[in-house]
Amino acid sequence: MGINYLDLINVVDNVPQDFVFNDLYKFLLPDDPRPHGFILPEIVKQIPWTPEFLISGESKTVQLSCPPATESCNAAIQSLVDLLIDRKIFSNIHNDRHSEMNKILGARFDVQIERFPKSLFGIASRGAHLTGYTMTSSGEMKFWIPRRSPHLFTYPNKLDTTVAGGVKASQSPFSCVVDESDEEASLDRAYVTEHAKSVGVLTYVTVSERRGGLYQSDVLYVYDLEMPPDMVPKPNDDEVAEFVLMGIEEVKMAMQGGEFKDNCNLVMIDFFIRHGILTPENERDYVEICQRLHRRLPVPIAG
């Protein structure tokens, strides 16, 4: 029996295309009617909102009410985040510590929020994934696959894409890939900069039981890197336990066996499509699979 790619996609992109978000609160930025996130009603009740946020139960909105400028909006959001961390209300703000800044995707000016509390507001995430592969002397394609460290807060011991990371506010997706290639895999920065290829973007909407039923949109920028046979990635931080060289069938079996971090399955499926491994001739659900990897998001992606 072959691998069921739609099942793997459904684990991650598990919010129906026709889902109506009317039961959730819309997170609104100043002078912008477009919702930049969707918040569970129970979360709205638990958050100790500061005066800069206007809550309407009638219209189900959380409106950031301050001058529509970067400095004022970022200050208001950070003040609320500081309060959430200090009061230790939510478990997903783990270890009661601050995290790196992320952009609010699609905002009309530069608005940022810390990574950990972002999911509470249903704000879209940006990630960058690089698939490193090599060709053997016999012409076989193989992938460098890392195993995540056992102590990680999310998906410990799971397989991952060669290099992956959340895109910080200070980074472009490509600079994220270059930085993570050095920090996670000890890959030469100059080689990655010259040879990594931007090959598209994946989008999905997920409701995470692991995060208490929070809704979140995700954008994954994907890159390919063909590596010479003598280039071997090595763990360079405490996030990766080891790198293993795996063939196409080995990767498929690991995907089918639930060994990969969930959204990494989408990255590998996309790679298989682009490189002719997954085709209309060998996959009856080919068209739906291609569509599902690039769904329209319910939040803005441009200002």
Automatic annotation (TrEMBL):
Top-level taxon in the UniProt lineage: Eukaryota
Ranges for domain Nudix hydrolase: 125-268
Any one GO MF annotation of this record: 8-oxo-dGDP phosphatase activity
SUPFAM superfamilies for the chain: Nudix
CDD domains assigned to the protein according to its UniProt record, in alphabetical order: NUDIX_Tnr3_like
Matching Pfam families: NUDIX (PF00293)
PANTHER family: THIAMIN PYROPHOSPHOKINASE, THIAMIN PYROPHOSPHOKINASE 1
Protein name per the record: Nudix hydrolase domain-containing protein
Organism: Tothia fuscella
